[in-house]
Structure formats: structure tokens, C-alpha cells
């Protein structure tokens, strides 16, 4: 069973999946959605959940730098609640502070053009969220 990580934004959701042993994260795709239209998002996510036999969701929790939860964090909490109910799998909210900036830095260092970075940044952030989670929870 694998774990999928989601970097949930207002317009996009970056996806990454673990290997079967839970050691490495690999980027999958970026889904487009309209915030609040959960059913649509879950229908797009469903094929990935089935294909990878997902047993857990890790959802990025954007905290403020002082550790408090703002509106984006609250939106991630709602997404986690609704996704647990829809997919009947547990979810974990994982601190994602600075993951998008780190993903951007990796892509810039790899000399990826601005237009291409925009297309993959959310997927890359999901990879960083998942890898951080896997590293922290490895046996």
C-alpha cells in the first residue's frame, strides 16, 4: 500500500506518491480544480488512488511562520476531512512551510524555464511534502 501526498491550492492540487516500501516520493501530476468543488477534485483524484492502492493521504498544511493556522491551513483541514470521508482512508496533515519556495529553488537551480516551472511547481511541492513525511516516519 502506498501513500499519496497532496499540495492543495486554490486552483491546483499537486500529487506525489510513495514507493511500496514508503522510502521515496515521486511526482505524479497536477490537478486543476475550483476551490470548494470537492466532488470534482475527488473524481479526478480517484483513478490515482485506485491505481496506486493508496492506504493514506498526506495533505500539506500551510502554517504561518509563527506556527499558527491561517485561512489556507483551515482550507487544507477541510479538504483532509472531506477526503477521508470520500475515500475512506486516513489522512495526515503535514507542515508544508517553505515547500513551494524550496521546490521553486530546485527548479531554478536545474535551469527550468519560468513557464515550465509554473506547470510543475505544485507537483514538486507535493514531492517535498511526501518525502519530508516519509523521512520523519521511517523505521
From TrEMBL:
<comment type="similarity">
    <text>Belongs to the YqgF HJR family.</text>
</comment>
<keyword id="KW-0540">Nuclease</keyword>
<protein>
    <recommendedName>
        <fullName>Putative pre-16S rRNA nuclease</fullName>
        <ecNumber>3.1.-.-</ecNumber>
    </recommendedName>
</protein>
<keyword id="KW-0690">Ribosome biogenesis</keyword>
<dbReference type="InterPro" id="IPR006641">
    <property type="entry name" value="YqgF/RNaseH-like_dom"/>
</dbReference>
<feature type="domain" description="YqgF/RNase H-like">
    <location>
        <begin position="1"/>
        <end position="103"/>
    </location>
</feature>
<dbReference type="InterPro" id="IPR012337">
    <property type="entry name" value="RNaseH-like_sf"/>
</dbReference>
<comment type="function">
    <text>Could be a nuclease involved in processing of the 5'-end of pre-16S rRNA.</text>
</comment>
<keyword id="KW-0378">Hydrolase</keyword>
<keyword id="KW-0963">Cytoplasm</keyword>
<dbReference type="InterPro" id="IPR005227">
    <property type="entry name" value="YqgF"/>
</dbReference>
<dbReference type="InterPro" id="IPR037027">
    <property type="entry name" value="YqgF/RNaseH-like_dom_sf"/>
</dbReference>
<dbReference type="Pfam" id="PF03652">
    <property type="entry name" value="RuvX"/>
</dbReference>
